Each structure stands twice: as C-alpha cells, then as structure tokens.
Amino acid sequence: MENRIIAVVVTYNPNLRMLDEEYNSIVGQVNKLIYVDNYSNNHNELFAWAKNKRKLQFVWLKLNEGLGFAQNIGLKKAFEEGASHVILFDQDSVIDSGYVDSLFEMENLAIIQGHNIGLSGPIYKSHDDGCFYPIVSIEKGRFTNVPLESFKDYVVVSHIIASGSLIRREVFEKIGLLEDKYFISYIDHEYAFRAAKYGFETIVVKKACMKHQMGDSQVKVFGRKIGLYSPFRRYFDCRNTILIQKNPYFPKVYKRHYLKYIIGKFLISLIYGPQRLNQIRFSFRGFYDGIIGKTGKCPLV
C-alpha cells in the first residue's frame, strides 16, 4: 500500500486563533486533514474558518458523543480515503516542521531493527514556557520517567497520549477502533495497552516535538505541573479511573497508581480548581457512576 498519512482532529468550542496555528503547522506535512466537530457552540465561526482551507474535510456531528466517538468517525473517514497511517491531534496541538516525517522515519527504523511498531508519539513541551513534559513508561511493573538524554532516536514505552500519535492502519485492522464508552479520559492509554496485548509496540521519537497543553490551566505542586480541569472533565477522570479497574488491558500497577493519583487530583482541584463546589459534586457523581459501571455521557449536564 502507498503511504498516505491523514490527520484526524476533533474540535469542541475551539479557539480559532490556536486552531489556525495548528492547521498551518500540520497541512504541509500530511496528505489530508479530517476535522470532526463535536457540536461546538461557535459552529458558525468554525464553518467560516474552514471554508476554502486546502486538504481539509469537515464532519459536523449533531451531538457531542465524546472524544472517542468523534475520533472513530474521523478514523473511518481516513480509511475510506485510503490512509496507511492516521495521526491524531487535539484542537490545540502545534507541531514543528518535519514532525510527521520524523515519526514515520523512526517507525520504519524501529521496524527494520526488529520492533513491531503500532504507535509512534512525540516528546511534548508546554505552550506556556516551552518546558518538556516527562516521558512516562511502565517497566518491570513500575512507573518510570525516561530521561531525554537516555536515548538517541527513539525509545520503546508502554503508552502515550493520543494527540500527535501516528498509528499504522494494520493496528486498527487487527485490534479495532478506539474505546468510545469512556467518552474522554483514558481512551489513548487503553489503546496503547490493548495494542501491546496484540504484539504491537509503542515508541516515543526524540526528533518529533509538539506544543501541547495539559489541562485547561496548570498549577505547580511540589515543583510538578498539574493540569486543572473543569468539573465536567473531572467527572470523567473520576468515573473512568474506577471503570478501568475492571479493564483487562490496563496493567495492575497502572490501575493502582491512578486510583491513588485521582484522589490527589481531586484534592488539588478543590484547592486550586475552578467552581469548587461543582468539583465536589461532579467528582463524587463520577466515583458513584464508576462503581455502578455507567459509561457514556455525564448525566449532570
């Protein structure tokens, strides 16, 4: 199959200035961009922005069914267009020149060197201050940070986030599409862990760098940046942290880690986050819905 790389971007009430910056950074590096809009409030402005953009196709959804659902719509469209690879982006992801080529080249190099590569991702730096986010992996049953200086071209890791990740068509053909029942949180990590169960490896590529924002805003706690989210997003973090405890693809150490981590994030949200009373309300409803096994949309909105 001829190599054909198609970008899939999901939008929801996007900042059009940032969306334009993202589009301009991507358009020259892929064969096509497919945007899937999750029923944005600024639909008219977004429609006007998309008009006459080259290589661009927009899919307008009638309801917000979640990130995973929208990504799967884009993936299906990409495969209809003959994609050999799909690269996923959030609506605020800006990439450096040569980014896509770097991912593709390192995928090929790793395959030549004996790895069965399924997903390839970048290193991430903050929009605000340009600091690099840590590369996190699970090795020998433990979480570890992978120093940038510890590898030359790429490093095999256990999981990556979705935005900026290049995924081979063969992966989707073998293991299926993304898990959309979680709505938003943990979808990307679930896919990497599921791919690993089917024999695919995930790599982080040193030469591929992307600006990315973790959270709606951030706060430093004990020297570490923590993303702050709306109560709406906090609901899914809490609920899905409970739901993944029964998912066989997630490693046990991951489940335990995030079960403890979500309690810390809940407390930080109460201290620093927006709408603190709603943080409590949405978080506790999320924990409850996770316990009873509810999936899909948040019932509080």
Tally of individual helices: 9
User: Major sheet: size, sense and barrel closure?
Assistant: 9 strands, mixed
Terminal Cα span: 45 Å
Stretches where pLDDT falls below 50 for ≥5 residues? none
Helical fraction equals: 25-40%
The radius of gyration over CA amounts to: 19 Å
Proportion of residues in extended strands:
15-25%
> So what's the oligomer here?
single chain
What keyword list fits this structure?
two-stranded antiparallel ribbon; alpha/beta; 9 helices; 13 strands; 301 residues; nine-stranded mixed β-sheet
Outline the structure in words.
The chain is an alpha/beta fold and 301 residues long. Helix content is 39%, strand content 25%. It is built from nine helices and 13 strands. The chain has helices at residues 16-26, 43-50, 67-80, 99-112, 169-175, 187-197, 231-243, 252-272, 276-292, and strands at 5-11, 32-37, 56-60, 85-89, 94-95, 117-126, 135-139, 142-146, 154-157, 166-168, 201-212, 217-221, 224-228. The strands form three sheets. Strands 1, 2, 3, 4, 5, 6, 9, 10 and 11 form a nine-stranded mixed β-sheet that branches. The protein has a two-stranded antiparallel sheet with strand order 7-8. The chain has a two-stranded antiparallel sheet with strand order 12-13. The N and C termini lie far apart (45 Å).
